[in-house]
């Protein structure tokens, strides 16, 4: 029997227009007619903006007008535009707002709230069209003309709406990133000023070990000079640490006392320098507290998105996943993994003209830099922690591939992996590497951050929604063991974990039921 082959439509039949795909307006202009299509151009500033209304042909309907960034002025502007559109017979209108840091957002929100299709014009696009029109004159009116031309040619980009969860993740991740950078600067200043008061004391502790995983800082806060350390001796320092409940090793204390006996003379302003670095240390502790609080809050928003499934990948934790989520946005906004990589830009630039083709230039400049930074951070973590990606990087290193190129390759692969996991609502699988337990990993994160157990269970229940049913049995194993252990606290963890275990399809063991009933009867 002869079967007919299915005929597929040729890809060449699809219409293609010059310009960005999410900025095209050709079909809309064709439907209503160019003389009935209006474009509102807005040049934004910090306190006020300038705008004008034209039709598609460039006929000015409302001359350039200034609007203050106030609610009443925005309402008057919208009413003026609607009246003009009705009088001129404009049946379709878009608002092209030039991006200016964060100061364009009040104008953008006002037009969106009024029901306008609000587009964003990048300053590079408006500058490109302003330069040939007015080479040596940059004014607000000239900028409005350039914004109009960018919109006509499809460079006014439509930005899809983003829910409050993703906006919160972006704000929190950026805030945490800034706190970490400021904390790093303070740490450098502490080392420098401490060297003035106690020369050479901080040298044995490199990088971050001076502030964590050592007794160096608790000792120097109590004994703030070499003379004080010599006077206290090993016995005095050990008594202070025991009283403060700080673990230590005697050889470390002996090394510190040995340094004090051979230390160089401090500066003449040693007392002042001591006060300065101790004040900075209190500021560092404040930054540290804020960072941990931000991370706890980020976890609460992460579990409300399908990106929580990334926690099943070795090397991706709450912080790196949250930063990536905040910068990338909903996965529904991307048609494929190439769209994510195209926005992040972890690939080289290309220059081609006739027979000349240089496809191995430096990284492209025009991209979402924050998204690329998040992707590169994930790539570094995967190279460090994930056996498969570490092996890939090692094989490329033997081929003498540049380390920067290796990170870019891993970042490209990581974005493809991200798209498959998040869009497919699945967990990590393949490459001969076992996945990590998502709920257990989330619980460990909250345990190390000191999150209240009730909030930890709430986050785990929200993350449970994204789990595929085939993973329920595996996810329940470590939680069942955790519920059997004895824990101190006002409320036993077994009481809180039992509903989640039931959702995972695991019946609570008799021993667990007995402990739960005994705890309830005692209360």
Descriptive report:
The chain is built from 20 helices and eight strands. It is an alpha/beta fold and 523 residues long. It has four domains: 21-158, YqgF/RNase H-like domain (Nucleotidyltransferase, domain 5); 172-297; 305-348 and 365-424, no CATH class; 438-522. A hairpin with a 3-residue loop joins β1 and β2 (48-55). Residues 308-388 form the Transposase IS116/IS110/IS902 C-terminal domain.
Whole-angstrom Rg: 30 Å
- SSE run: HEEEHEHEHHEHHHHHHHEEHHHHHHHH
- How would you sum up the major sheet? 6 strands, mixed
Provide the CATH top-level class of the largest domain. Answer: Alpha Beta
What is the average per-residue confidence, as pLDDT, rounded to a whole number? 87
CATH topology of the largest domain: Nucleotidyltransferase, domain 5
Based on Cα principal axes, name the global outline.
globular
InterPro entries: Transp_IS110-like_N (IPR002525), Transpos_IS110 (IPR047650), Transposase_20 (IPR003346)
Domain Transposase IS116/IS110/IS902 C-terminal: 308-388
GO biological process, one term: DNA transposition
Pfam family, one: Transposase_20
């Amino acid at each position: 029997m002869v079967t007919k082959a299915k005929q597929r439509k040729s890809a060449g039949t699809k219409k293609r227009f010059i310009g960005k795909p999410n900025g095209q307006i050709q079909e809309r202009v064709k439907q209503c007619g160019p003389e009935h299509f209006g474009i509102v151009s807005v040049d934004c500033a910090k306190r006020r903006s300038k705008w004008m209304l034209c039709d598609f042909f460039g006929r000015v309907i409302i001359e350039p007008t200034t609007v203050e960034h106030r609610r009443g002025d925005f309402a008057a502007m919208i009413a003026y535009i609607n009246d003009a559109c009705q009088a001129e017979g404009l049946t379709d209108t878009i608002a092209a707002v030039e991006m200016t840091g964060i100061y364009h957002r009040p104008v953008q929100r006002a037009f969106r709230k009024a029901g306008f299709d609000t587009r964003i014009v990048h300053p590079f696009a408006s500058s490109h069209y302003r330069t040939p029109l007015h080479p040596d004159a940059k004014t607000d009116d000239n900028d409005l003309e350039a914004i109009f031309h960018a919109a006509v040619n499809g460079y006014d980009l439509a930005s899809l709406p983003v829910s409050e969860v993703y906006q919160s993740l972006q704000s929190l991740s950026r805030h945490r990133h800034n706190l970490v950078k400021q904390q790093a600067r303070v740490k450098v200043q502490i080392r420098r000023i401490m060297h003035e008061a106690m020369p050479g004391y901080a040298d044995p502790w490199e990088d971050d070990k001076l502030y964590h995983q050592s007794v160096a800082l608790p000792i120097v806060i109590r004994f703030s000079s070499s003379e004080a350390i010599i006077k206290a001796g090993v016995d005095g320092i050990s008594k202070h640490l025991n009283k403060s409940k700080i673990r230590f090793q005697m050889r470390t204390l002996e090394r510190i006392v040995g340094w004090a006996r051979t230390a160089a003379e401090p500066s003449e302003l040693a007392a002042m320098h001591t006060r300065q670095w101790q004040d900075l240390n209190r500021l560092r502790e404040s930054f540290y507290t804020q960072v941990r609080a931000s991370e706890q809050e980020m976890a609460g928003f992460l579990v409300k998105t399908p990106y929580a499934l990334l926690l099943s990948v070795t090397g991706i934790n709450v912080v790196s996943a949250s930063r990536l989520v905040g910068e990338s946005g909903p996965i529904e906004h991307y048609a494929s993994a190439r769209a994510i990589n195209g926005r992040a830009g972890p690939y080289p630039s290309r220059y081609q003209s006739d027979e000349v083709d240089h496809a191995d230039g430096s990284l492209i400049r025009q991209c979402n830099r924050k998204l690329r930074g998040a992707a590169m951070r994930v790539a570094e973590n995967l190279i460090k922690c994930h056996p498969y990606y570490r092996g890939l990087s090692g094989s490329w290193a033997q081929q003498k591939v540049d380390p920067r190129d290796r990170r870019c390759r891993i970042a490209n692969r990581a974005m493809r992996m991200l798209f498959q996991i998040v869009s497919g609502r699945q967990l990590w699988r393949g490459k001969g590497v076992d996945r990590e337990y998502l709920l257990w990993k989330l619980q460990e994160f909250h345990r190390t951050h000191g999150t209240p157990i009730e909030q930890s269970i709430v986050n785990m229940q929200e993350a449970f929604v994204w789990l595929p049913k085939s993973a329920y049995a595996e996810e329940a194993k470590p939680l069942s063991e955790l519920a059997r252990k004895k824990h101190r606290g006002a409320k036993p963890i077994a009481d809180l974990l039992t509903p989640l275990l039931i959702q995972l399809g695991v019946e609570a063991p008799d021993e667990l039921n007995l402990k739960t009933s005994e705890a309830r009867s005692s209360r």
